[in-house]
Hints:
By secondary structure, the protein is an alpha+beta fold. About 30% of the residues lie in helices and about 20% in strands.
Amino acid sequence: MAYNSEQAATSAYVFMIQSLLSPFKEVVHIMPVKKIDGEKYFAVVKKTIVELDSIGFKVIGVVSDKNSINRKAMSNFSVPPKLSIVYPHPSEPSNPLFFVIDSMHIFKCIPNNWINQKNAGQCFYFPDFEDHNKFPLLEANFSTLKQLYDIESNNLVKFAYGLTLKALCPTNLEKQNVKLVLKIFNNFE
């Protein structure tokens, strides 16, 4: 059951702590939800931080993707609510609480969105960053990477030696694997 509903949960928010100075990391709370808004999520995040602080952990930051619910929850750490990268700590307002965007999550979103393009060639279109007034837009074709893989798959020497079928056609679970994302973008494995 969801923590905030009589219905079955459709997702779970997992809270973890990770040390900055050692390899220690641990799940500290799992919250199954059907649906949640930023206000309710803020209350859970704040309570989790305060309780961790009360047992001796020093929470200095919250790492999250840029999901609107996460942004809304974090904005509530200031009065009036305002999105920022640093807030007063809920246990000790003279200390900072940092809001850190999970850059790896954003990095993984790029090829996932590219793979999900429905146009011919699975193309991303983007402006020329040297001359933004230049038209037409430039394009990056995901299908070109697939063609390169097909051409080189049986070759001993390859230009794209790190490119794999798993990186080009990942399952939903594999789409979360940073190593597979790097096989698409990295020249040197």
